């Protein structure tokens, strides 16, 4: 029986010129009508019934409809809307997974996809058993148990952005810009995000079901303004000072996010700081050597997200991603967890969760597990990994020593409903110090050194290498005070930096967040995690070159 959607709707995207005719329309007016949640649940049950009767030891399915709206800031800038639909079925037979996906929303098509997944698992299992050097295949008995879960969950929304006239998006952005200019007085600055400021949201209805009896529905929505800016002359990129925004990331919620009263004060704090820094002279730096460097919260969030946090991924630690994203330097897990000698400085502690209002917040992960908050690093010692039902065994021995059962932390995530679930998708929090340690305090004892702001650090969690190139803003510090803007390249080994060179951690006022995308699986798909980290002071960092101005 065919359902409400067209037979194939893999992706629908369209540009809407904003004019007198369209400006009063809403995003919903330009998008096809989706299926109600009860029909998605019916299709999910069809898939699971089919997989069970076809002989799967275990199977699960994710089926979803995602809508997006994005409005450009420029005067009468265009709007973009899109609809993406799909489903993916996993089947497990004799220690082997198979996965099939589709976008044809009929009962027959969904059932055919489920049968194909089961057939594939049976075929692959036979091949695996015939390999001459095959090791014992993983048994589902090694997985963390999961309760059978049922229910429905929605992100609380006060104003549905898909029912707001598109012209109101422009009005909200203009009001925000006018307020900033009004509060900024005669101080000149210019917002610099691509398309100036932009405003957009994503919403998804996703159903998860398994042959174990789970059936859950989640309605998520996140978005808000992409706010960024800079001050300075646009004739020379080196003279531009990006505005450092204290914690204004996209978050779960509706149109009310852009109306938050704290948004403008946050912006003004960053603008005042950037204006002050823009008055510093710009000069070349050529004295290579080792210096103390303060890496701001945004730089540390990117660095830790691409190195230490990735190395704590259970998929990497167990070698599941060895031929894809890579492995981890934090292995073997039995020796790393609770080791007598800490792997990192006792100043470093990290936790993770998937709680509101983070953009990765969910009630159930893509294994049907309720996520829990958990510790990753406590005072320099690794005490946990990001785990799913399949990778929870990485902590089995450690948990047994502590009298705890083997369980998933709820880290399974499918980037789309039609994607293979992998580990990731959490919000990682690097603990700030409880003592007063703002940027001024971190710089106070530096005779000569640097402050690096908003630099993207390239790194590899397998090789443990880190590299900080030309930061967006690099300040030369003398006697605890910034005296000039400059450029430099610093090199370090991430593990060494956070184990032996870390001197001090900033307080909550220095915390910034970054969304880090990690490519996982074959074919690669991007899994996003949110990292929140404070600024950190590190000693004896190698500055290998400066750059002339």
The proportion of residues in beta strands is 25-35%
Shape: globular
Q: Into which percent range does the helicity of residues fall?
A: 10-25%
Measure the end-to-end span.
68 Å
CATH class of the largest domain: Alpha Beta
Low-confidence stretches: 1-8, 181-196, 463-471
Work out the count of structural domains.
Answer: 2
What Rg do the Cα atoms give? 25 Å
The number of helical runs is 11
Largest sheet: 9 strands, mixed
Report what the structure shows.
There is one protein chain. With 549 residues, this protein is an alpha+beta fold. It has helices spanning 37-53, 107-130, 166-184, 263-278, 297-306, 308-311, 314-317, 333-336, 396-401, 439-443, 494-501, and strands spanning 11-16, 58-72, 79-93, 96-102, 150-154, 198-210, 215-226, 230-231, 241-242, 251-252, 289-295, 350-353, 374-378, 381-382, 412-413, 422-423, 427-430, 448-453, 457-460, 465-468, 473-478, 481-486, 488-493, 502-505, 512-520, 525-533, 536-546. It has 2 domains: 11-278, PmbA/TldD fold (2-Layer Sandwich); 289-546, no CATH class. β19 (457-460) and β20 form a beta hairpin. Residues 1-8, 181-196 and 463-471 have low confidence and may be disordered. The N and C termini lie far apart (68 Å). The strands form 5 sheets. Strands 11, 18, 19, 20, 21, 22, 23, 24 and 27 form a 9-stranded mixed β-sheet that branches. Helices cover 21% and strands 31% of the residues.
């Amino acid at each position: 029986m065919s359902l409400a959607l067209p037979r194939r709707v893999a992706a629908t995207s369209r540009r809407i010129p904003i004019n007198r005719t369209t400006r009063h329309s809403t995003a919903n007016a330009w998008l096809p009508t989706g299926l109600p949640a009860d029909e998605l649940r019916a299709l999910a049950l069809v898939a699971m019934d089919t997989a069970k009767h076809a002989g799967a030891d275990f199977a699960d399915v994710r089926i979803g409809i995602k809508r997006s709206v994005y409005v450009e800031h420029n005067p009468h800038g265009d709007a973009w809307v899109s609809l993406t639909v799909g489903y993916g079925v996993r089947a497990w037979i004799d220690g082997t997974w198979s996965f099939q996906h589709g976008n044809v929303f009929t009962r027959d098509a969904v059932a055919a996809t489920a049968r194909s997944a089961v057939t594939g698992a049976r075929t692959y299992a036979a091949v695996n058993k015939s390999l001459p050097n095959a090791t014992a295949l993983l048994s589902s008995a090694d997985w963390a148990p999961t309760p059978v879960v049922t229910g429905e969950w929605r992100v609380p929304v006060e104003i549905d952005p898909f029912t707001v006239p598109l012209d109101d998006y422009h009005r909200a952005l203009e009001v925000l810009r006018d307020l900033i200019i009004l509060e900024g007085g005669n101080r000149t600055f210019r917002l610099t995000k691509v398309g100036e400021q932009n405003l957009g949201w994503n919403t998804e209805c996703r159903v998860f079901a398994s042959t174990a009896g789970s059936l859950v529905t989640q309605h998520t929505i996140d978005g808000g303004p992409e706010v960024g800016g800079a001050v300075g002359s646009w004739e020379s990129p080196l003279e531009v000072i990006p505005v450092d925004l204290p914690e204004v990331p996209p978050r779960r919620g509706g149109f009310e996010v852009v109306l938050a009263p704290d948004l403008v004060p946050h912006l003004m704090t960053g603008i005042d700081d950037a204006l002050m820094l823009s008055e510093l002279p710009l000069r070349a730096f050529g004295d290579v050597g080792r210096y103390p460097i303060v890496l701001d919260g945004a730089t540390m969030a990117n660095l830790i997200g691409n190195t230490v946090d990735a190395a704590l991924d259970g998929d990497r630690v167990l070698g599941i991603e060895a031929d894809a994203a890579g492995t981890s330097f934090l292995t073997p897990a039995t020796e790393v967890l609770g080791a007598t000698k800490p792997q990192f400085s006792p100043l470093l502690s990290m936790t993770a969760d998937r709680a509101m209002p983070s953009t990765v917040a969910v009630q159930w992960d893509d294994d049907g597990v309720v996520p829990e908050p958990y510790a990753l690093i406590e005072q320099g010692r690794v005490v946990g990994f990001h785990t799913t039902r399949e990778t929870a065994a990485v902590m089995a021995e450690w948990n047994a020593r502590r009298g705890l059962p083997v369980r998933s932390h709820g880290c399974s995530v499918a980037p789309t409903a039609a994607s293979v679930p992998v580990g990731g998708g959490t919000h990682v929090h690097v603990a700030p110090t409880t003592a007063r340690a703002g940027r001024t305090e971190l710089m106070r004892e530096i005779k000569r050194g640097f402050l690096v702001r908003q630099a993207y650090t390239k790194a590899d969690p397998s090789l443990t290498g880190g590299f900080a190139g030309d930061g967006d803003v690099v300040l030369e510090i003398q006697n605890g005070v910034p005296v000039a803007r400059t450029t430099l390249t610093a090199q370090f080994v991430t593990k060494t930096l956070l184990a032996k060179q870390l001197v001090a951690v900033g307080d909550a006022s220095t915390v910034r967040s970054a969304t880090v995308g990690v490519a996982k699986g074959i074919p690669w798909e991007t899994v996003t995690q949110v990292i929140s980290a404070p600024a950190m002071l590190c000693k004896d960092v190698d500055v290998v070159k400066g750059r002339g101005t």
